[in-house]
Specification:
The chain is an alpha+beta fold. 22% of the residues lie in helices and 34% in strands.
């Protein structure tokens, strides 16, 4: 019923961390320690080497994952560890991390392997001790215990405010009538996650309708902020009694903070956020609590004759036509039922055997006006054929339904429609001429005589080839062809001269960026100003030297521009601009920049560089 899709929730990351998984710098000292430990291992276990196995949680539910950490202290495994084979438990490798610890002048190197542990059946499990080869020796772990609960079972002393995600099934009421449409909301509360996949909603005795995704919003639950992802559908009970709706189930990857940090590069070591948290994606399966529904039968008291089981709130419109026919000609009846309810389930009672008419089965069409398909109309169209000219009217029509809001039966009726039925083969009678028709009013005749006079004849103009306007129109294709030929020649010229294309693109970029530079200077945005100024310098110098813009640094001033004879009045301000931009990029706030002066200086340098040719 429902298709799976990928979804990413709004991430509640601390300031400066962003949505991606970040790795904090570790430093070159870690590499030196690891290399020294690896060299000391030799053929045996290093002094102080140990292996520790831990689980981040001892109780999980079906569909959730616990994290198993294997921490090697002052040693490295000679091969991938062989994890024990525990029935109904699955181990999945999720990554590794390296760090070092300095205590009382003693350096300790740590290497940790991470695994996700998931269970297919609830129960109490024991992960037995196992050995890992370290050189020619082996290190052993201690046994670990893990308790696995059912997917909808609550953890001990658990509160919704402490969870990273939970699922709720919400209905506006728990009592309904059979055939009544009940809206159902599936609400996912998640702090941070992605990859949402919903399972089809279940419920014996219910029929579910279309699925609508509601706008995502942020909500506060206790002292935590959750992203609320809500989906709405409808449920219609087709039997009575105490029925269970749900539970709703879904799968997603939770973004769980972790303490692992690994260096990313030289600049990250120097300027990275050492305290930025890192995250890992943890597969999770959530289940909501089921909802108990009491479904009542429709009352027998007051049930009208011809009731077909329709439940909802409706209005009726009827049209009959044509009303002047001959015997054997069809009359079309259109009955439109509009309102709110299970539109596909609306059925009309069988037409009675009307005296003097032959009827045929109706056709129907449903038109909805809402995403759930429970508001709109259903139109029935059927033909009746009079068999005798003694028929004077189409009988009255009626439609009955049960209103669950008012809890009563309602009946809508349409009165009989007068019709005129002529004998078979008789022509339609013309309206009679009134006796008091004014003099001079033309009388309608069946046969019109031939026209005796032709009337005014139109004047024939000159031929088209003598018309100036016509000749001008013929020139349009030639003009379009010449324009297309010229445009093609221009494209060929640009394709043969890529430097011309680049020169025009750089000139357009500089022209369009001047206003943004002035706005950044006026606002005191040194970061934005320097980033844009550095990009414009790289693009202009790269275009002049026919080199990639990313390869242009401050070294190009002395290495390439000065040997090519660029005057000192251009090199000196250019060197100052590179120095100011690099200081703001790598050491923000270390110097106060006069952005107005730099703007004037940058515009002057760009103009002078544009005059250079190599």
């Amino acid at each position: 019923m429902w298709a799976s899709w990928t979804w990413k929730a709004a991430t509640a990351s601390p300031a400066g961390t962003g949505d991606r998984v970040r790795r904090a710098p570790g430093g070159r000292a870690l590499l030196a320690v690891l290399l020294s430990v690896a060299a000391a291992l030799g053929s045996g276990v290093a002094r102080g080497a140990s292996l520790t196995a831990t689980l981040d949680r001892s109780i999980i539910r079906i569909g959730e994952a616990a994290k198993l950490s294997l921490q090697f202290e002052n040693c490295q495994p000679a091969e991938a560890p062989n994890l024990p084979d525990v029935p109904n438990l699955q181990f999945t490798y999720s990554g590794q991390g390296s760090s070092f610890r300095l205590e009382n002048g003693r350096q300790t190197a740590l290497q940790t392997l991470y695994y996700f542990v998931m269970a297919s059946q609830p129960g109490d499990y024991t992960i037995p001790a196992f050995a890992v080869p370290i050189g020619t020796d082996r290190l052993s772990t201690s046994p670990l215990t893990l308790k696995v609960l059912k997917s909808n079972e609550r953890l001990p002393d658990e509160d919704l405010q402490t969870q990273a995600a939970f699922l709720k099934l919400v209905v506006p009421k728990t009592e309904a009538y059979v055939g009544e449409v009940v809206p159902v909301d599936i609400q996912l509360y998640v702090v941070s996650g992605e990859g949402l996949q919903l399972e089809p909603l279940t419920g014996e005795g219910f029929t579910f309708g279309k699925l609508q995704q509601l706008p995502q919003r942020q909500v506060q639950v206790g002292n935590r902020t959750f992203a609320l992802v809500a989906l709405r559908t409808t449920a219609v009970a087709n039997k009575t009694g105490e029925l269970q709706l749900g539970p709703a189930e879904c799968r997603l990857n939770l973004r769980v903070p972790t303490g692992r940090r690994r260096p990313r590069g030289v600049f990250d070591d120097m300027f990275g956020d050492m305290f930025a948290p890192t995250y890992e994606l943890r597969p999770t399966r959530l289940a909501s609590d089921p909802v108990r529904m009491t479904v009542r039968p429709l009352p027998a008291e007051g049930r009208p004759e011809g009731f077909t089981g329709t439940v909802g709130e409706y209005a009726m419109q009827v049209s009959v036509g044509p009303t002047n026919v001959a015997v054997g000609e069809p009359i079309t009846l259109k009955l439109r039922v509009a309102g709110k309810g299970a539109l596909d389930g609306i059925r009309l009672p069988p037409l009675p055997a009307w005296p003097g008419f032959a009827s045929y089965p109706p056709t129907s069409q449903v038109e909805t006006t809402d995403p759930l398909g429970i508001e709109g109309s259903k139109t029935f169209e059927f033909d009746v054929v009079p068999q005798t000219n003694s028929v004077t009217a189409v009988p009255a029509l009626g439609f009955s339904f049960f209103n669950p809001v008012r809890k009563v039966y309602e009946r809508l009726t349409h009165p009989a429609t007068p019709i005129i039925v002529r004998p078979a083969g008789a022509a339609m009678a013309l309206p009679p001429i009134a006796a008091n028709t004014p003099a001079g009013t033309p009388v309608m005749r069946d046969i019109v005589p031939l026209k005796q006079r032709l009337g005014t004849l139109s004047v024939i103009g000159p031929p088209l080839h003598r018309s100036t306007r016509f000749l001008a129109v013929q020139m349009i294709p030639l003009i379009l062809f010449a324009a297309a030929w010229g445009w093609r020649r221009r494209l060929d010229h640009l394709a043969r001269n890529p430097r011309v294309v680049r020169r025009r693109a750089v000139a357009r970029l500089i022209r369009e960026s001047q206003a943004e530079l002035r706005r950044a200077a006026a606002a005191g945005d040194a970061d934005g100003f320097c980033a844009l100024a550095l990009r414009l310098l790289q693009e202009r110098i790269g275009e002049r030297l026919d080199q990639p813009a990313a390869a242009i640094t401050d070294a190009v001033v002395e290495e390439q521009l000065r040997p090519r004879g660029v005057p000192e009045e251009v090199l000196s301000p250019l060197r100052e601009l590179f120095l100011a931009c690099n200081e703001q990029r790598y050491a923000p706030g270390s110097a106060r920049l006069d952005l107005a002066v730099l703007t004037t200086q940058l515009e002057s340098v760009l103009r002078q560089l544009n005059k250079l040719s190599f």
